[in-house]
Design goal:
This protein is of the alpha+beta class and about 450 residues long. It has 3 domains: about 5-100, Beta Barrel (Thrombin, subunit H), CATH 2.40.10; about 105-130 and about 140-240 and about 255-280, no CATH class; about 290-345 and about 380-450, Four Helix Bundle (Hemerythrin (Met), subunit A), CATH 1.20.120. It has 15 helices and 18 strands. The strands form 3 sheets. The protein has an 8-stranded antiparallel sheet, with no helix packed on it. Strands 9, 10, 11, 12, 13, 16, 17 and 18 form an 8-stranded antiparallel sheet that branches. A two-stranded antiparallel sheet has the order 14-15. Helix 9 (about 305-315) runs antiparallel to helix 10 (about 325-340), helix 11 (about 350-360) runs antiparallel to helix 12 and helix 14 (about 400-420) packs across helix 15. The longest helix is centred in the middle third of the chain and has 23 residues, at about 215-235. It is globular and about 70 Å long.
């Protein structure tokens, strides 16, 4: 199928006339500099070429989402990400793809049995990092809700009989009955044969009232991971008494052992018998990094311990093979180290705090006084996000308002996980944009130090 251009207004912009198409990268408006916008579609996937001309161009982030909208219209005619950019003089040519996540995220080995096509589409799109609300499948094609069985092989765990752990998860021996169920998936077993051969047990749970297999898999894996986390806590207890009872036996080698989840899952609908066997390893295959380009006119790294720890945490945040939750936590660890040396401007003088304390504690008992004193002691403290942006401004690192909002959204995501508010969803493109923002902050801090490579 050949690419057919989408018909757009031939005049995209004018420095005198009102622009007919608005182009934004993140929340940076590039419309004034657009001299060409061509959108094509191939097999229902859009791509675009945008040429920007002018000097200087405003700073924007290549990892941010790009939207092209007709004037006074809220629905974009194109939404995508920049795949590459080339500068020639004052001209910058951007190539964009409408569904980059699907192209970058490959498909790991898997096999199915009785799985309808909508279930497969849902799985592929969710694996690519799209949020559930962006997936539009006609409700008439939604499978019926049912009970699902989720089974994951466990390496480094040998048991003789089923053992309940927690959260409705059981460890069961890997038997011939289970091997027969894997065999029905045919050639996928060949690729994962070593995984199952090394499995001493399976972690099994049941997920109720789910329509989509990918949703059931996600819920089941979260529950199994949580249970294995708790099992490791129990195994690493070296106390001679547990639950006020003396321990009958202890072996150091057993204490140091730990069960590991193998990167595979078997999902089965109990009523429909639809099932799939999947390899859970990352299928993202980025190109080799342009190391030489990245080192051109760049600052030397800072050598203080906060910066070194920040770089180490950032490296984990940039690892696309890690789950989003771990990447977000690592990103905020990097930001905490980044802003560790920032002291905010105190809004209260010490004399004002002392006067406030004297007035506030009048007539209070000891417990109430301690609480009031603690609250007053925190009045001059600043939040982590405030310190981050204070440092960025001090060091001259430009961060757009929308980028600050994205970082704040990741903070809310992290806080919800830590404080029990649920995990929520972060799209992969937003995660990669956030990683780029933090990279900019760290490089800006190194630039402020003033040492550059030759």
């Amino acid at each position: 199928m050949t690419s057919e251009p989408i018909q757009l207004d031939p005049l995209l912009q004018s420095r005198i006339a009102q622009p007919r198409v608005t182009v934004r990268c993140g929340d940076v408006d590039l419309t004034e500099f657009v001299t060409r916008l061509e959108i094509t579609e191939h097999e229902r996937v859009p791509s675009a070429i945008i040429i920007l001309e002018g000097a200087p161009l405003p700073q924007f982030d290549f990892m941010a989402r790009v939207d092209a909208l007709r004037y006074n219209d809220t629905d974009p005619v194109f939404t995508g990400t920049i795949t590459d950019a080339t500068r020639t003089g004052n001209r910058l040519t951007l190539n964009l793809f409408g569904m980059t996540e699907l192209r970058e995220q490959g498909v790991a080995p898997w096999a199915t049995h009785n799985v309808p096509p909508p279930d497969l589409m849902q799985m592929l799109v969710r694996d690519a990092g799209f949020a559930s609300e962006r997936i539009q499948i006609d409700t008439s094609l939604h499978p019926a809700a049912e009970l699902f069985e989720i089974a994951v092989p466990i390496v480094g765990c040998d048991i003789g009989a089923p053992i309940p752990i927690a959260n409705d998860v059981r460890l069961i021996p890997f038997s011939r009955d289970w091997e027969a169920r894997f065999v029905q998936h045919g050639e996928a077993l060949d690729h994962l044969q070593k995984t199952y051969a090394e499995a001493g047990a399976l972690a099994v749970t049941y997920v109720h009232a789910q329509s989509w297999m990918s949703d059931a898999e996600k819920a089941g894996l979260r529950r199994i991971n949580s249970s294995i986390d708790w099992l490791v806590v129990l195994l690493r207890n070296g106390s001679s008494a547990r639950n006020q009872r003396p321990v009958e036996q202890f072996t150091r080698a057993n204490f140091r052992g730990k069960p590991n989840l193998a990167p595979a899952v078997l999902v089965t609908g109990v009523r429909s018998h639809r099932s799939w066997l999947r390899d859970l390893r990352s299928t993202s295959h980025p190109d080799f990094p342009a190391v030489a380009d990245a080192l051109i006119n760049t600052p030397a790294p800072r050598r203080d311990w906060q910066s070194q720890n920040s770089y180490a945490a950032f490296r984990r945040a940039a690892n696309e093979e890690l789950p989003t939750a771990l990447r977000v936590s690592a990103l905020w660890e990097a930001l905490e180290y980044y802003a560790a040396d920032v002291a905010g401007v105190p809004p209260f003088r010490k004399t004002e705090l002392r006067a406030l304390r004297r007035r506030a504690i009048t007539g209070l008992n000891d417990a109430q006084t301690k609480r009031i004193e603690f609250a007053i002691s925190q009045l001059n403290s600043t939040s982590l996000q405030e310190r981050i942006w204070v440092k960025a401004e001090k060091e001259g690192t430009l961060i757009a308002y929308g980028e600050r909002q994205l970082i704040a959204r990741l903070r809310a995501y992290r806080n919800a996980m830590v404080h029990g508010g649920g995990e929520g969803e972060i799209e992969r493109r937003d995660m990669e944009h956030a990683v780029s923002i933090v990279s900019r902050l760290l490089i800006g801090s190194a630039n402020a130090k003033g040492d550059h490579r030759s």
